[in-house]
């Protein structure tokens, strides 16, 4: 399963987002809408199908004690959620706060994960990224 594309969506007053159809269909087929949300150190939330989260969790658990502070970021903030009958997921208040989510958010497919960003924060992050030189790996990328 590969996630791609960006959806501009709104966070409702109760802290829920409606999962766009293209991602929802994939998620319902792949994991019956069972997801895990967790903080990412770059200021957004990871949205992972539960079985993918279980793989990530196992990788984190196998790391040495030196990784404890980072493991705490990911495991300590992980919350299991389900897509409800109205195609929504509830973003818990502590995760909304951690990612500074306002009303306007973006759900971005980034390969094996979805990212949930505050729209303004994402725009600023992307502008900063685009102002930097491209890494060699990206500069040498050629479509075949």
Automatic annotation (TrEMBL):
Organism for this UniProt entry: Rubrivivax albus
Cellular compartments annotated: Cytoplasm, Nucleoid
Residues of the SpoVT-AbrB domain: 6-52, 78-121
Residues making up the signal peptide according to the UniProt record: none
HAMAP family documented for this protein: MraZ
PANTHER family: TRANSCRIPTIONAL REGULATOR MRAZ
Family note: Belongs to the MraZ family.
Record key words, sorted: Cytoplasm, DNA-binding, Repeat, Transcription, Transcription regulation
Quaternary structure and interacting proteins, as annotated: Forms oligomers.
An annotated Gene Ontology molecular function: DNA-binding transcription factor activity
Any one annotated GO CC term: nucleoid
GO terms for biological process, alphabetical: negative regulation of DNA-templated transcription initiation
Domain of life according to the entry: Bacteria
The protein's name: Transcriptional regulator MraZ
């Amino acid at each position: 399963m590969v996630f791609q594309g960006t959806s501009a969506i709104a966070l409702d007053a109760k802290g829920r987002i409606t999962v766009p159809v293209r991602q929802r269909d994939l998620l319902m087929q792949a994991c019956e809408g069972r997801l895990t949300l967790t903080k990412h150190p770059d200021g957004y939330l990871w949205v992972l199908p539960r079985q993918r989260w279980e793989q990530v969790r196992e990788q984190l658990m196998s790391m040495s004690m030196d990784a404890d502070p980072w493991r705490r970021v990911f495991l300590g903030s992980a919350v299991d959620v389900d897509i409800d009958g109205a195609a929504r997921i509830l973003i818990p208040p502590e995760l909304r706060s951690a990612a500074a989510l306002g009303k306007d958010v973006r759900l971005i497919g980034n390969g094996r994960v979805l990212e949930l960003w505050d729209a303004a924060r994402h725009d600023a992050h992307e502008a900063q990224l685009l102002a930097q030189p491209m890494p060699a790996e990206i500069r040498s990328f050629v479509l075949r």
